[in-house]
Design a protein that fits this description.
34% of the residues lie in helices and 12% in strands. By secondary structure, it is of the alpha/beta class. The radius of gyration is 19 Å and the shape is globular. It binds iron/sulfur cluster (2 copies).
Length: 361
């Protein structure tokens, strides 16, 4: 069977009735916590909504476009990770997501996830999925993982990315069978993607397996838009209309970008969204590392407040979807009038590889 057709023909793995009931109860529990998070986010602007925390920079893959990994870094020690989680909890972080590198390479990942859950935050993870097995997924269930995202770049692996549906489809089936947590599959569109049709195939397969689906618009090394071709724009709109599991339909911020227009919004990075690198520094986001680059231990509530009102020059063409999702909570209020901590552009030493980053987010 070709990978191109499996979205339409491969059935979803059968799951026992008792398992379906348990998952439904967990889903409702998660939904309750998410609604509480949104309500609290709307009522109070002084806490962090989402933090991406890097437990290890090393990755087991080497996607040609990626500037967020290396092949040698050691895992961040567990006591340091605990300290960072607790510090984020003190800032009221509602969601703490493990990213990388490849977070599954961290030997104490489950302990970190459990620590996150103990703070009351939702626990998330972004992974390339290669290291998932049935047993590993069950341990993630026990650790309390709430959300998992895998980015799939193409249907067949190529020299740019091995994160292909052909390789990962068996992992997706394992997730459909064993995962108690929510799974989102992100596909990508934009220059650098050989066949935009792949994104549609991947989105359909995700929905057929009972997952949600998002589509990322390729950005350059500073998180900025690369214009979509007409075909890619058409496919973006087709994915958007796939049904309720297709979150592209509610990611309004992408609609302008897909049509090649700047998007008016207020980036609250450094305040409502924090990116904490493996060295424990707070950055605006994965593509604006170096700003403000202040140790999390030294980050203060005053800095959170200042960044809430700081206008980010890169916002109109930004494609970093997680920060834009966070922005929707506050876009309607509190105009940003302050200039950034430091001027753009970022230091050349932080621009690695100089190519777009489709999957990582
Ligand atoms: S995109 Fe993800 S999987 Fe690929 S090298 Fe970067 S961190 Fe690893
Ligand atoms: S607008 Fe915000 S999220 Fe987007 S690239 Fe700039 S700092 Fe990062």
């Amino acid at each position: 069977m070709s990978a191109n057709t499996q979205a339409e023909v491969k059935p979803r793995p059968q799951v026992h009735f008792a398992t379906r009931l348990r998952r439904q109860a967990l889903r409702l529990n998660r939904l309750g916590r998410e609604l509480k998070m949104i309500a609290w986010g709307l009522m109070d602007t002084k806490h962090v909504l989402l933090a991406h925390l890097i437990p290890i920079r090393r990755c087991n893959l080497s996607c040609a476009y990626c500037n967020e990994y290396d092949d040698h870094s050691k895992p961040v020690p567990l006591d340091l990770m605990y300290r960072r989680v607790d510090r984020l909890a003190a800032f009221g972080a509602s969601i703490i997501t493990m990213s990388g590198g490849e977070p599954l390479l961290h030997p104490d990942l489950d302990d970190i996830l459990w620590r996150i859950r103990r703070t009351g935050a939702l626990a998330g993870m972004i992974t390339n999925g290669y290291l998932l097995t049935a047993e590993r997924i069950q341990r993630l269930n026990q650790a309390g993982l709430d959300h998992l995202q895998i980015s799939i770049d193409n249907v067949m692996p190529d020299e740019v990315s091995k994160k292909s549906l052909k390789v990962l489809d068996q992992k997706l089936e394992l997730l459909a069978e064993h995962a108690d947590f929510h799974v989102n599959i992100n596909s990508v569109l934009g220059s650098g993607v050989r066949d935009p049709q792949d994104a549609l195939t991947i989105a359909k397969r995700a929905l057929a397996l009972g997952f949600s689906s998002t589509v990322g618009v390729i950005h350059d090394e500073q998180g900025q838009l690369r214009t979509l071709s007409d075909k890619a724009t058409d496919i973006y709109h087709e994915i958007k209309n796939l049904g309720k599991g297709s979150y592209a339909r509610i990611n309004w911020f992408q609609h302008d970008l897909a049509d090649g227009k700047p998007h008016e919004w207020r980036c609250r990075s450094g305040s409502r969204y924090l990116y904490i690198c493996e060295d424990g520094l707070v950055h605006y986001c994965s593509q604006q590392r170096g700003f403000p680059a202040i140790p999390l231990d030294d980050y203060t509530r005053e800095m959170l407040r200042q960044e809430f009102f700081t206008k980010k020059a890169c916002a109109p063409h930004c494609t970093i979807s997680c920060v834009q999702q966070v922005g929707t909570i506050d876009n309607w209020r509190s105009p940003q009038t302050q200039p950034g901590f430091r001027p753009y552009p970022k230091p050349a030493s932080l621009v690695q590889l100089g190519s777009p980053t489709p999957g990582a987010d």
